[in-house]
Each structure stands twice: as C-alpha cells, then as structure tokens.
Specification:
One of its GO terms (biological process) is tryptophanyl-tRNA aminoacylation. The chain is mostly helical. The protein has 14 helices and 5 strands. The site of tryptophan (TRP) has 13 residues, from β1 and α8.
C-alpha cells in the first residue's frame, strides 16, 4: 500500500449492525479505504470486558459483523480487516501502556463512570473493564495513525489515547503520534420510536433485515406525532422519519416531500412508501454483497486470516520500536 495517511478503527462484536452504525461510522470507513492505509478490526477482547460471563455469542457475532462490513462496502483488498484477539501484539502493548497509565485517569473516565451507574444487569467491577481505554489506546497507537474514524461517544477514549501517547513520548522519547478523532458530519438517525437507534432499545433497522420485516417495522414508525390525519399540515422538522429522507432521498425528492407534508397533500403512509422504496434501493447492493459471504462461509475466515497476517506484520514493527524505547 502506498497511501500516505494511515488510519485504524474497531467495533465490538455485540450484534447485527443497524442504519445508525452505517451512517454514523461505517460509511466513513468505506470512504477512507480508498484514500488511506486503513486497518479495521473486530474488537472481540473489548466485547469480553463487559460480557465475560457469557461469551456464547461472540463467535457468531464476529462473523456476522465481518459480513455486515463487506456488505456495506469494505473491500478486503483495499483495507485490512482483522480480529483483535488474533494479533497478540495488542495485548503486549496494552500491558506496556498500563505500566505508566495512572489509575486515576481510568477511574475518572466519563464513559466508565456512566456505564458503571447505568448498566445494572452485568458486573462491571472487573479490572478488564477499568482498563478498557488502555487496550483501546494500544489498538490505536499500534498503527501510529493520524486519525481514527469513530462516533462521538468515543471522544473521551480518544482523549485518553492522546494522553497515553504523550506520556509515552515524554518518558521514552518520540515514537507515537497523537491521533485525532475523525467524526462523521452528524448524521441524524433516530430509532423507530424516536429514541437513539440502539440494539438494547429494540428500535433498529438492521443492514441484514429482510424488506418484509422492514415494512412491518416502518408501519409502526413514529412520524410527526401532532399530525393525526393527512389533512393536517405536518412538520418534517419534528418528524422521526424525515431524517431518513435526508439520508436516502434525492434533494429534489426531499423538497417535494417537505412541500407535500407541510401543505397536507402527502400523507405519512405515502411518505413511508417513498422511504421504503429508497431504503430498498440502498440496501439491495449491500445485501447482495453480504449474501455472497452467506453462501461461502469459508470466505469470511479467509478474509480474516489475510487481514490478521497483514495487521501482525505492521504491529510487529511497532512493537520492536516500543520494546527498544522501553528498555526491553
Ligand atoms: N470502543 C469502541 C466502541 O465501543 C471499539 C474500539 C475498541 C475501538 N478499540 C478501538 C474503536 C480502537 C476505535 C479504535 O465502539
């Protein structure tokens, strides 16, 4: 690869990906693979930090996620797709970084405090969960990237990654560049019920959903709740569906929908039909690419094996430099 800039990002294999994942992060990844040397990995160790007691779904989730990625347009020839736990260097770097990362940084991490408070059905008192950001810093700094495409929710982790890099460079000499977060310009992607689209709210449209199921879901989807009949003028700016037109419909179509909604000539049922048509156009090529992998499961293993090897080659180089700097 002779691309000048390098980038890396990962996702935890927690379940099927939905439109929020696509428009929030994945779309960005797909674009980056053409312009940058890009490493994308399944963060299976990170999944264990909170789900260590029930790892039964991890294997399936990993494979499904790779299928979602390739469906979305990641091309294993254009970027490196790998599995974190197959590149053991990540564990070594995480251990080394933990030597000089103050426990107080980890304890005051806002994500850590928030999840400790909010998640009550799992134990999060384990050391692995506290050290989540150190492992994440290792994942990132390993590839010495200039930037990391992530969602906004990851900003505290990115800040800590930069602090860890700075501390490494201060203690042992310049080696690890401080990477910046590369946010996707805010794509509004509400769930079916108007809350944030999330697997735990059961309000998502998944990339692998069949159109028949999507039709059912969209039928019950909230629109402008103040609009009771077609003859009432609606307001696209408070409608839960309109943000999807912004993502999936042409500017001309959006203007027409806005006019029809506010002028009470286009009803929500017909508006949903337009959405379904455009969503189908969008999802069809994704699902076609995905079905190639469904029909050939060995290809998923091949993609990962190839990516693991390429990631290891790069990680090996970084680790040689890190060990040298740290006197090992
Ligand atoms: N914390 C990320 C998430 O929950 C996953 C992740 C782990 C990650 N390591 C990373 C993302 C490194 C970017 C870079 O989605």
């Amino acid at each position: 690869m002779s691309k000048e800039l390098r980038t890396v990002s990962g996702m935890r294999p927690t379940g099927p990906l939905h439109l929020g994942h696509y428009f929030g992060v994945l779309k960005n990844w797909v674009e980056l693979q053409y312009t940058e040397e890009a490493y994308f990995f399944v963060a299976d160790w990170h999944a264990l930090t909170s789900d260590y007691a029930d790892p039964s779904k991890i294997r399936t989730n990993i494979r499904e996620m790779v299928k979602d990625w390739v469906g979305a347009g990641l091309d294993p020839e254009k970027c490196v797709i790998f599995r974190q736990s197959e590149v053991k260097e990540h564990a070594e770097l995480s251990l080394l970084l933990s030597m000089f990362t103050p426990v107080s940084w980890l304890e005051r991490n806002p994500t850590y405090k928030e999840q400790q408070q909010q998640i009550s059905n799992k134990d999060l008192g384990n050391a692995g969960f506290l050290c989540y950001p150190v492992l994440m810093a290792a994942d990132i700094l390993m590839y010495r990237p200039h930037g990391v495409p992530v969602g906004e929710d990851q900003l505290p982790h990115m800040e800590m990654t930069r602090e860890i890099a700075r501390r490494f460079n201060y203690l042992y000499g310049e080696l690890l560049p401080e990477p910046k977060a590369m946010l996707t310009p805010a794509a509004k992607c509400p769930g079916l019920d108007g809350r944030k689209m999330s697997k735990s709210y059961n309000n998502g449209i998944f990339l692998s959903d069949r159109m028949a199921d999507i039709q059912e879901k969209v039928r019950g989807m909230f629109t402008d709740q103040a609009r009771l009949r077609k003859s009432d003028p609606g307001n696209p700016d408070v409608c839960n569906l309109f943000p999807y037109h912004v993502l999936l419909s042409s500017p001309e179509e959006q203007a027409e929908i806005r006019k029809g909604c506010t002028g009470a000539t286009l009803g929500c049922v017909d508006c949903k039909k337009i959405f379904l048509k455009n969503l189908e156009t969008f999802l069809t090529p994704l699902q076609e690419r995905r079905s190639v992998l469904d029909a050939n499961p060995a290809r998923v293993d091949e993609i990962l094996a190839h990516g693991n090897e390429r990631a290891r080659a790069f990680a090996g180089q970084t680790m040689a430099l890190v060990r040298e700097k740290m006197g090992l």
